[in-house]
Amino acid sequence: MIALDLSRLLRRACSATPTGIDRVELAYALHVAAEPGPHCYAARNILGGVGLLPQQQAERFVARLATRWRTGATVSEAWRIVMLAWRLRLGAMWGELRLQRALRASDQPPVYLLVSHQKLDRAAGIARLKARCAARFLCLIHDLIPLETPHLARPAQETRHRRRIETVAALADAVIVNSAATREALTGHLGPSRRRLPILVAPLAGNLPQGGLPANAEHPYFVCIGTIECRKNHHLLVAVWGRLARELGDRAPRLVVIGRKGFGGRRAADGFAALGGLVSCRSGVPDVAMAALLAGARALLFPTRAEGFGLPVVEALSQAVPVLCSDLPALRECGRGVAEYLDPDDADAWHRAILDYAVDTPRRHAQSQRLMRWKAPCWAAHFAIAERVIAGLLSLDAAELAGSPPALEASTSAGSEIGC
User: Fold this and answer.
1) What is the fold, at CATH topology level, of the domain defined by 2-205+378-401?
2) How many CB atoms lie within 10 A of CB 28?
3) What is the pTM of this model?
4) Do domains 2-205+378-401 and 221-371 have the same CATH topology?
5) Hey, is 119 helix, strand or coil?
6) Which residue has the higher pLDDT, 348 or 414?
7) What's the mean pLDDT in 48-67?
8) Which fold has domain 221-371?
9) pLDDT: is 414 or 171 the higher one?
10) Are 301 and 223 in contact (CB under 8 A)?
11) Are 15 and 124 in contact, with CB atoms under 8 Å apart?
12) Domain coordinates of the chain in residue numbers?
């Protein structure tokens, strides 16, 4: 019996578009619903416990949310999704004992699966679940950014994330991570007694629909995807486009920024607004429209300062769109030898690259040639790793769990509705 925690999706039900972590939890929810094995859904409640969710209602919520994020939704449909999420969250308040009874009735040791960081800092509910149901605890850690670069996160995040990692060290039976960079960072923050905790790398896959028609555009344009916040380094793009405006005026390439404003992002958003028609900022863009915008772009720009994985890089390369991104270990993993890597502090280098990619230069052509060899990671390969971890947990086979993690170049021959 797998109990998948949907706390993050329930909290994000009012959002018109997903974040990267939202996409991962949604992918897991769709995968679990499609699998024949015994499963249920759970959520954290305000009392700190983990409560059972009604299965049919939970799966209906997941399906509706997936449709909304893919194609958009009317106001009335969005409202129905939010109300369904609230009913499920209220049910979780009184569902802790029901979840424990359901897990104790399982023929095999149950697995509590948390693939977001949602309330991971509150360990008591997880500890009760393990003690009362002999449950195994498997979690997915996305990054250690608040601990590695606390100046790029909200002030309270460093303390909260430290507690999350303390929960992992105290209670996790195994961990999935999205990159070797995240695994190295996590290992460094675990105590000596937990350094042998099984940690397997399972790269993430893209969620955007494939094969869409590119958006029509009068001018060549670039796309930047991600919350407008200090960590994503949008200030660099403000500076570059200010320079392009002075040099080229209306002949400058355009920039489309897709993402909502977040922590420390107001100044960058104001800077983009001051550039007038050269830059457009869009939030609430469903996946179908985002895929069309991305397909017509000269390149994805991703000048971020810290990442655990870099899902926009994978999304762009999966759409055969060139990528200019920061030279970070996690981005080198997911972009491999295809993307072009730049210093996130070198505005001159980004300026030159953007001018080269705005037209058909040999530099852009070289990346297009590399793209022909690109093998996109797929959800089928990711879930095969997750299922291997779960099988090891059920047999308590630590040797199997500690085996070498698969490489990012996992075969894409096995497809799924949400991957490949």
Assistant:
1) Rossmann fold (3.40.50)
2) 26
3) 0.92
4) yes
5) coil
6) 348
7) 95
8) Rossmann fold (3.40.50)
9) 171
10) yes
11) no
12) 2-205+378-401, 221-371
